[in-house]
Amino acid sequence: MTETIIIIVALLVIVPVGIWYYDNTPAKTRRRRELEQRMQLVKGWIVYADKGLRDGSNKIGGPCKIVFALERNANDEQLKTVAHRLAETATSFEVQKEDFGQSQQISIALTDGLKAFTTVVWVSPSHLPAGLLTQPYIMCKVCASDNQEPMAGASMVRQEA
Length: 161
What we know:
Elements: H1 2-23, H2 26-38, E1 39-49, H3 51-55, E2 62-69, H4 76-89, E3 104-105, H5 108-111, E4 116-123, E5 137-144, E6 150-156
Antiparallel strand pairs: 1-2, 1-5, 2-4, 3-4, 5-6
């Protein structure tokens, strides 16, 4: 009986410590820091957003297709125009699970020469002022590679009122 208790206590201590160490190995910590340094705050112009995010009927969140650029001198009006063009040319706005975490470069013909990308982000009402999507854009973080290409999709950040 005593041996069983000692084994159980040992497992309750050793297993969590092992899991913590695995998640916090020097290589993982270094990689996490490196990715955080590559994060850029971008304005994602909305191509499509769930209607419930605008009227408040969606309390859990929904997908939002956005257009963004990693160039520092990207013109807001130009990106807004690209978002409108994509919305007008789309035949449907079905979002697949695979769309999250993927960025695609938009054809230069649609962007007037601007290197712009599109992706799908999950918009949480808890990250929006008053729980409503009121702006034509959302602020997102994107992890950029050395050649100014997105390494993955984007993630929404808490919006300021």
